[in-house]
Amino acid sequence: MTDEVIIRSEGFAGFLSLNRPKALHALTLGMCHAMSAALRKWAGDDSVKAVIIDHAEGRGFCAGGDIAFLRNSALNDGGISGRRFFHDEYQLNHQLFAYAKPVVAFMDGITMGGGVGISQPAKYRVATENTRLAMPETGIGLFPDVGGGWYLSRLPGRIGQFLALTGARLDGAECLWAGLATHYLLSDRLEEAKARIAQGHEPGGVLTALSESPPPARLEGNAGEIARHFVSDRYEDVLASLEAENSEWAAKELAALSTKSPQTCKVALRQLAESAQLADFADNMRMEYRIASRVLLRPDFAEGVRAVIVDKTNDPQWNPATPEEVTGDLLDAIFAPLPADEEWKPL
What we know:
The chain has about 350 residues and is an alpha/beta fold. Helix content is about 50%, strand content about 10%.
């Protein structure tokens, strides 16, 4: 096991407290395995009535997955260890989604990528004034995985497509408005909420009793623009719509998109379109594992991580360089089924 997750039972609650503060609690394979093992144990323990996912210290809830590890795999072992990470992380995502006992995720702080993957499956998702939620993968040549296709495609008004393409960060009030959070609590009430849940009180009632009215959601003010400009599943149409609009907002979003991987943006739009048609979350994770297995080894991932995270030069040289060069054949190859013995399987 690992000391990067503090696993404990307290009263009637099982706690999974992420404990990797220097990395903003980004998930490692060991953390995923430890959390899955604890969830399996608690599933058969009648004394555990609810599961709480939080972080032990620091300003992040969970900043994502272990990107440096994944890039190293892409560059040095043909993606073998990276695919294993994705496979088992996605098993944890599915395990949380299907879990029979209520799960409460306290998204207090930075909640990105893998952090979204372990919080969105929870029945109760608590945002605070510190929450900063995003799926920023288009900026590093990855894609909004860990169930992102399922959750984002089901948001109203093309909000999900906007978030997937731009990587925009939402605060706690925006998360509640968009439906990515179920409750909004001030951070100084979280310990009381956890204590009451551990005492055996029903989580929904506890969270409702301690909830606050959030400030206005800035995202709501742009909802009409998002619905209009991001309506198409064709990336070129989104860009053309923004280019035709003479407004500060459109210019800002167009500038943001100009820094993103064209391949990833097209993958994300197709991913969300296909996810919206699925009835089973496991099928979504199977599709996302196929995408991850291919995208991990495409040029944009290693290059994007280099430019944004390793060298911090923010000058990725995307390949293909333009949306028009990302062909339908390339997308078909990324989404194609894997050999039967390599497909993703739930726990």
